[in-house]
Amino acid sequence: MPFTALGLIPPLAQAAAKVGYGEPTPVQREAVPAILAGRDVLASARTGSGKTAAYLLPLLQKLLDSRHDGRRDVSMLVLVPTRELAAQVGDTLQGLVQALPQQPARPLKIAVAFGGVSINPQMMGLRGGADVMIATPGRLLDLVAHNALHLGSLSALVLDEADRLLDLGFADELQRILDLLPARRQTLMFSATFAPEIETLAGRVLNDPLRIAIAPESETTAVPDIAQRAIEVDASRRTQLLARLVKDEKWTRVLVFVATKFAAEIVADKLRKAGLEAEPFHGVLSQGKRSQVLADLKASRVQVVVATDLAARGIDVVQLPAVVNYDLPRSATDHVHRIGRTGRAGETGVAVSFVTEESEAHFRLIEKRQGFSVPRERIAGFEPAPRADVAPVIDHAEVPGTGGVKGKRPSKKDKLRAAALLSAGAAADDEKPS
Ligand code: AMP
Predict the structure, then answer these.
(1) Which CATH superfamily is domain 3-215 in?
(2) Least confident piece of the model among 28-32, 89-93, 279-283
(3) Whose alpha carbon is nearest atom 12 of ligand 1?
(4) CA pair distance 76, 60, nearest whole angstrom
(5) More exposed terminus of the chain, fewer Cβ within 10 Å: N or C?
(6) What is the mean pLDDT of residues 313-325?
(7) Which atom of ligand 1 is nearest to the CA of 314?
(8) How crowded is residue 383: how many other Cβ atoms within 10 Å of its Cβ?
(9) CB of residue 24 inside a 6 A radius of ligand 1
(10) CA distances from 390 to 1, 22, 185, 385 (A)
(11) Residue 286: partners with Cβ closer than 8 Å, 6 or more residues away
């Protein structure tokens, strides 16, 4: 089905083809006609589904169609949770505009703003206004406070990765932004899930929305074009095994997830010592460094990026052949986001999870939530040492003088609790990016 069948004008369909989009993806097939018709939309679509183009293409068409009175007040605002996603959405939109067969008579001005960098260049960039603003909520409010932009003429608002916006604690900022916007506007919400807080937000901001559920509503169902592997290994041998896999499997680019910033640094360092081009990626690095690492990964200057969950959402590195859970994710939802970094838009990918004795129970929980199990493998030379719970246990009841010590051997429940604690304590790296 061509893009024009969805109501897109031929120049936009040509631009979509030129940037490499094939047939419209399922979320595009449903969202594009509805957005063109002016409807509000609530879509559950994971990153990788083509959701960004699903809202950018029709909104761009409306922008190209609209008449201008010469002023440049923001008419389209895209709110995103992270700097990386802001930059990525900005790049995608810029790419589509540049791919138009003919540039609009009045050039479109696209502004991207996020926290963590100086506000002054962003304010300078907004002189003379902007047609499209893509921003993280905190920085957007800063810009409004500096009188750098006006939102009174807004016609379309997009909340991209709305679940993540709420997860990162942006609810208050969102409300303050909503209070600044005209009531008559088109609003589009994209979220990985239809969790209750998303439904509540949708109830407040959307008007009779078209609901689109592309990913099954249970967001934990894994994505079919990704092969999942679970390798049993001792925790202390994971780095060696990782280095071996990268070489043996000939992964040209791999994203490795660890639980802490510290682990990201250490593992990347050890991989470098093992002769691999590896870089850490986490929230303490400067914005410049983070952008550099991603650009290097995209350009294959770096082969392995060792990241905290900061990188799990939003980042689109096309054709990432492999993702490795060096440390397991905290939840099944995070697992889906992590493994969604591979196998993007029709590519096949592999997601490998390292399962240690300590994390086995937690991995079983993730499998249960995602609705299927992953067979355990062992790699020759990296077989785990015999497990403690099959090692001989001294029965204290039989040792004179000690008495029976109830519960000496951890119960299944204890192990599950320990695994949950382990993962909850695994220092989150989610930052409030603005
Ligand atoms: P997103 O879900 O927006 O993160 O998009 C994921 C990837 O899919 C991006 O690399 C897009 O370039 C790509 N993409 C979007 N739409 C299409 C399409 N219709 N055909 C092929 N690739 C697409």
Answers:
(1) P-loop containing nucleotide triphosphate hydrolases (3.40.50.300)
(2) 279-283
(3) 21
(4) 9
(5) N
(6) 72
(7) 4
(8) 12
(9) yes
(10) 58, 53, 63, 11
(11) 116
Ligand 1 pocket: which of 3, 8, 21, 92 to mutate (most atoms within 8 A of CB):
21
6, 29 in Cβ contact below 8 A? yes
For residue 416, the model assigns a pLDDT of 52
Name the pTM for this structure: 0.60
Check pocket membership of 25 for ligand 1, CB cut-off 6 A.
yes
CB count in 10 Å sphere of residue 104: 14
Beta strands at 76-79 and 110-113: parallel, antiparallel or unpaired: unpaired
Strand partners, 307: 257, 281
Nearest atom, ligand 1, residue 23 CA: 19
Q: Is 138 in the pocket of ligand 1 (CB under 6 A)?
A: no
Which 8-state DSSP code applies to residue 325? E
Q: From the CB of 160, is ligand 1 less than 6 Å away?
A: no
Same fold, 3-215 and 223-384+391-409: yes
Domain boundaries, the chain: 3-215, 223-384+391-409
N residues, the chain: 434
Q: Got the DSSP string for 240-306?
A: HHHHHHHHHTT-SSEEEE-SSHHHHHHHHHHHHHTT--EEEE-TTS-HHHHHHHHHHHHTTS-SEEE
CATH 3.10.50.40 fits domain 223-384+391-409: no
From CA 376, how far away is CA 228, in angstroms rounded? 10
Residue 390's CB is within 10 A of a number of other CB atoms, namely: 7
Q: With cut-offs at 50, 70 and 90, classify the pLDDT of residue 209.
A: very high
pLDDT digits (tens, 9 = 90+) for 215-225: 543 343 444 46
Residue 177's φ and ψ, nearest 5 degrees, are -70, -45
SS3 132: strand
Decide: 43 and 27 in contact? Cβ < 8 Å: yes
